[in-house]
Amino acid sequence: MVAFARIEKAAIGRVGAKELVDRIKHRIPPVKSAAALRKMPDDRYLSLMGLRIFRAGLKHEMVDAKWPAFEKAFHGFDPRRVRAMSDEAIEALMKDAKLIRHLGKLQAVHANGAAVVALAEEKGSVGAYLADWPGDNIVGLWDDLAKRFSHLGGGSGQQFLRMAGKDTFVLSDWVVKALNHWGVVKGEAKGKADRAKIQEAFNGWAKETGKKLAHLSMTLAASVD
User: Fold this and answer.
1) Domain endpoint, select from 77, 111, 134
2) SS3 24
3) Looking at the predicted structure, is the pLDDT value of residue 1 above 90?
4) How many domains does the chain have?
5) Does the pTM of the predicted model rise above 0.90?
6) CA distance 47 to 72
7) Those residues with Cβ within 8 angstroms of residue 161's Cβ, 6 or more apart along the chain or in another chain
């Protein structure tokens, strides 16, 4: 495995040291401590899940501007109240012009309300679940999110974790390109075997540098043309 010092040198050579620091500081939400993850209530996690689901494929600014209307429509994203909404109540939201009227995504929020309640009963809270999940198996967390929740597979699960403050790398096009360039994997890296190799590489780089997975990921993306 290539030393991360070499990757960081390449990133600095491409974008400059100051620009790299600025990208890490301003393009990535702050990584939270385990205590901070535990402190955030489940309604905020459910809101973030919904926000990520609706942002997918749309301009983030447009979705964010409409989000107060979603907060009202979904009762402040209280998981039990969302779970209690009837199918008819969800379908009726399609008539609300203040919302983004995408039935599949509205139904995903409804389903995820029930999933958050179930997870809280099992693990104590969403925050406890995220805080306790080991960073050396973050790809396993992606898989678990996809199984437990609606519309949180693939990149959406990774981006939700970023938004929530759980430390994670993301397999953006630029990160995958860099992983190819530095010889970690070949191609699109969609299979479990490739993800295991990627996790192993990030674990090694985290041990080498002491850096967060998110920061390693951003540096990696900056290291290639």
Assistant:
1) 134
2) helix
3) no
4) 2
5) yes
6) 11
7) 130, 138, 141, 142, 145, 168
- Are 212 and 4 spatial neighbours (Cβ–Cβ below 8 Å)? no
Two tokens, residue 211: 């850096």
The H or E element that residue 86 is part of is: none
Please write the tens of the pLDDT for every residue from 148-187.
999 999 899 999 999 999 999 999 999 999 999 999 999 9
User: Tokens at residue 216, please?
Assistant: 């390693």
Is 8 in the same domain as 58?
Answer: no
> Which of residues 134, 157, 183 is at a domain's end?
134
Angle between helices 154-164 and 138-148 (to 10 degrees): 110
50, 77 contact by CB (below 8 A)? yes
What is the domain-level CATH number for residue 70?
Answer: 1.10.340.30
Tokens matching residue 31: 């990584």
User: How far apart are alpha carbons 24 and 44 in whole angstroms?
Assistant: 24
SS3 content of the chain, % helix, strand, coil (to 5): 75, 0, 25
Which domain does 103 fall in, by range? 35-134
